[in-house]
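Re: beginner question about structure tokens

> Can someone show what the tokenized structure looks like for a real chain? I only ever see the sequence side.

Sure, here's an example I had lying around. Input first:
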Amino acid sequence: MKAIVIDQARRLVWSEVPDPVRQPDEIVIDVRAAAVNRADLMQRAGNYPPPPGWPAWPGLEVAGTVAEAPPASRWRVGDRVCALLGGGGYAERVALPADMALPIPAGLDWNAAAAIPEVWATATLNLVIEAGMKAGDTVFIQAGASGLGLAAIQLAKKAGAKVVTTVGTEEKGAFVKTLGADIVVNRKTDAIGPVLEAHPVDIALDCVGGPQMGEHAAKLAPWGRWIVIAALAGARTELDLVALYRQRIRIIGSTLRSRTSAMKADILRRMEAELWEAFAAGTLRSVIYKTLPITAAEEAHAILERNENIGKVVLTV
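And the corresponding structure tokens:
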């Protein structure tokens, strides 16, 4: 089969690789679409290797048809599924634990389905499971127009939360408002701190980090939870420890990729139970910015590097 391989010059090359060999508890998917995530760019740069046992090529979420399945699984050859992976999605085929796949919600095409597993699992893990989000909470979401940001906004609004979010352009700001964002801050023209003072947040989902994180976290409401999932603006900050203990603030570090397959399967089952009907009804949706053939993976990565996208970029196979 073929897959997108990262060569020694960090280029993305459509290359011949060995076919996956299914283990007893695994299925094999014929991939029809693979969504692009910023973690793929980090892996390409050498900063985010796949967990042990997963292929070396990137790709954390796909949609396709089941090509092989164990007799005792819920899957049959030909089933339409989307799946969460530890890696290896930029390929014609991928093997994965059977319980890390989900049926595609009714009415969704390959591209929309491929754009669900990673970002919606990340949003569910961090907002619902880690932070215990509930109706009436105020939730601060960094990078609101990213694939993850748009999923998090929709999930928060479904829960009955108020959403404060950041964007980098007026166009992105207008779009996130269509999904229900209540307060939108253009990070290039407006300061975030005063907004957080005016609207103390209960939960923050932070993929940015950087020097300002400590200042912003100190403005959380009492018992607030600041969840750090990446550090795109830098890995160091200063924390006001007095504000931390006076406000009973919790800072939580979290990643999805490094969790066990069993943990990920639990998150996926929760998503299927709580979100799949809404996807089928169209009240939750994947936002696709652009689709490209998988041989144009370099262009797909460039779109994310330029922060151009509103929503997801998807590669078709």
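Each token stands for a local structural state, so reading them left to right follows the chain. The longest helix spans residues 261-281.
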